Every structure is written in structure tokens, then in C-alpha cells.
Amino acid sequence: MSNIVFPENIGVTNYGTVRLGKNFIADGNDKTGKARIRIQTHAHKDHTDKWIRNIRPGRALVTSKPTLAILSLEYPHVNINTNIHTLSNSETILSTDLIQDRFLQERIIENAEITLFDANHMVGSSQVFIKNHDTGISVLYSGDIGWPLEIIPKADILVLDATYSRIKTSENKEWERKDAISKILTLISSNLAVQPIYIYARYGVMQEIVEKIIENIDTEINFVASDEIITKTEIIANFKSSTPINFKKEDDKYELKNVIHLKEFHKKQNESLTGLNLTITNFRSQNSSPERVVDNNYQNIVIALTNHASGDEISNYVESVNPKYVITDSFRNSTNAEILADEITKKFKIPAIPSTLSSVWKD
Questions:
Q1: Into how many domains does the chain fold?
Q2: pTM of the model
Q3: Does residue 17 sit in the same domain as residue 135?
Q4: Please, which residues have CB within 8 angstroms of residue 266's CB and are 6 or more apart in sequence?
Q5: pLDDT (mean) for 1-13
Q6: Buried-exposed string 79-94: b where 16+ CB fall within 10 A, e elsewhere
Q7: How would you write the chain as a 3-class SS string?
Q8: Closest CA to 65 of 43, 50, 83, 36
Q9: How far apart are CA 84 and CA 21, in angstroms?
Q10: Residue 125 shares a structural domain with residue 253
Q11: pLDDT in tens, 242-253
Q12: Looking at the predicted structure, is the pLDDT value of residue 257 above 70?
């Protein structure tokens, strides 16, 4: 790829900010101060660094309504800020309409259309598509994508998440995502009336599991959780029109039957409580099963369940976008980014590089 010149101002910096043009960034803070418009793909903490800085006068934040609802838990009055612009799935907004001229101080904003497409990673997650009329280039940032996707836009440049993404995956894997969900439901059904159950998961996946439990286990269940998990779950359920959940607060004392405790993923660490401890992780388990028993004494079981596309799904995604160039995200997984870029070049004959080789890496 050394003899191919990739477009400037597009890629991922060494501090994790995605650049999608001179004036546009996503999921990170702009240390150079050049970009005026930030797009927030979703509300997971590894993507939200210093997002609040982009709602000051002279800047703009573009995101989905569910993402803003979760972000605003940190800053309850942020919804009244006129520098935040929320888009629905497939909705487009003009970059020139985002910041009032009096705040630009003679800075010129590139004329572009910004569109958010559902990423099926969690509620409100988005792919970011920018059609830049000044440069004549269209760019798509995948963000964290699940599968399947209703709409995959075509673009000249694809900036592709590489956290868990490989085109080549283990050919010996004997289970699918649905098997992991089935294993979770089986473990819960067989233990619910016998002992307390503790589920550790990131939100998004946590709320999906709760929905599956309600849909498939026909008994009254008491979910016990922190105020933060209850609030986030209610926000997500509201946007998905899900069935109301029978919540009890973690700090209160109840004599309850059929109890499932919902715990934040990072709280697990070395915590082992008396009962069934289920840790739901993005990282794949062994090929024979999504289940891995860690400690029989405390019934510590890890279940591999992810909302990240991989394998043939990533291959189909790249093929659908049909880009002229691909840049893979080296910040979140440097090794994967190099491997994925090489796989894309070999399979599709498309120039692809890890973002360490992009023009913005050392911004």
C-alpha cells in the first residue's frame, strides 16, 4: 500500500478519536481543536471520552435520541442545549445548519450531509455516513456494528471497527450466537428457584438478556439492580417498547423468590457471590461451547455473547459498502486492525491500511 495515497483528515488517531474530514470527528475528543462537529455513535464508555466538550458554542454534537438519553444521565440538563442535534435512523442533517455563524469566528465548515444508520449494536447505536460536497468524498464509519443490518450505505472510504473483527474465524467453532443465548436461559431456568443468580454484563447486552428471560421463562422474576442499571434499562426498554420489568433496588432488603441480580460488567473482577454467577463477555470461548466454567465452588460461569459482527458478517459488510479505501481502527485493537486490513486487501483487492498508517494517527 506504500504507493497508494489515502485521503487526508480521515482515519483514527493514536488517542482513539475517529476523523471523518477536516471538520468532523466521532467517538472522541479532538486534541488539535480543528474539528467543530462531533458525531457520537453510541453510549458505551469506551466511545464517549469528553463528549460534553462538543456542546459548547461554536461546536456541535450529532447523535441519536437513545444515545443522548443515556449520556444525559451524567448531565441531567443537557437536553436543553441547542448545540446537540439528534437524528432518527436514516435521517440526514446538513453540516452548515449545525453551528450559528456568529460562533464560527470566520471559520469555514465543510459543506456535507451527515446521516446516521442503525448499527444493531445496542439501542441508538449508529453507523456514520458523511457525504462531503467540498471534497467530493463520501466516508462511512462503521462504529461498533452488530448483525444483521437493515441499511449499509456505499461509500468511497470505510473506517472500520476492528475490536473483535476478523474475516477469517475459527473453522472449528461448533456453536452460534443463538446457542449462547439458549445456554444462558437454560442455566437461569434450572437455578432460578434454587439459588440467587448474578448476571454481569455490559449494558446493551444486559438489556437484551433481560428481554430474552422475560420472553422465554414463564414465571414471575424479581430483578434486583442498582439505580443506574434500572434507569438505563428503562431508557432502552422505552425506545424498544419492551415489556415492563419488575425491578427491585439493590440497596433495599427484600425476602424474595426467583431473584436475578443485574450487575455491571466491571464490578465482577474477583467478586464471587453465593449462587450462580454468570459473566457475559464479548470474548469468544472455546470452539466446542460458548460456556466456560471458571470456578465450580461458586458456580462462576463465563458465557461468550457479543454484539460485534465478525467473520462472514464483516466480509459481507465490506462488500456491501464497496469502498475505494478501507482504514481499520488500530486504537482499540492494533493487532486485529493490521490483520483485518491485510485480509480485506487480499480478498477484495481494495487498498486497506490499519489506522497507524493513516495521516491522522499522530495528530
A1: 2
A2: 0.90
A3: yes
A4: none
A5: 82
A6: eeeebbbbbeeeeebe
A7: CCCCCCCCCEEECCCCCEEECCCEEECCCCCCCCCCEEECCCCCHHHCCCHHHHHCCCCEEEEEHHHHHHHCCCCCCHHHCCCEEEECCCCEEEHHHCCCHHHHCCCCCCCEEEEEEECCCCCCCEEEEEEECCCCEEEEECCCCCCCCCCCCCCCEEEECCCCCCCCCCCCCCCCHHHHHHHHHHHHHHHCCCCCEEEEECCCHHHHHHHHHHHHCCCCCEEEECHHHHHHHHHHHHHHCCCCCCEEECCCCCCCCCEEEEEEHHHCCCCCCCCEEEEEECCCCCCCCCEEEEECCCCEEEEECCCCCCCHHHHHHHHHHCCCEEEECCCCCHHHHHHHHHHHHHHHCCCEEEHHHCCCCCC
A8: 43
A9: 19
A10: no
A11: 667 888 887 776
A12: yes
244: CATH: 3.40.50
Cell of 337: 486492525
What type of residue sits at position 79? N
Angle subtended at Cα 327 by Cα 166 and Cα 147, rounded to the nearest 5 degrees: 45
Q: Give the pLDDT confidence score for residue 123 in this predicted structure.
A: 92
CB 346 within 8 A of CB 2: no
Range with lowest mean pLDDT among 64-73, 223-232, 304-313: 304-313
Within-domain flag for 130: yes
Structural domain harbouring 51 = 10-169+310-357
Reported as a single tens digit per residue, the pLDDT across 84-126 is 999 999 999 999 999 887 777 667 899 999 999 999 999 999 9
Residue 282 has pLDDT above 80, yes or no: no
The cell numbers describing 316, all together, are 459481507
For residue 302, give the C-alpha cell.
463465563
Rounded CA-CA distance 288/301 in Å is 15
d(CA 43, CA 122): 9
Measured in residues, the chain has a length of: 363
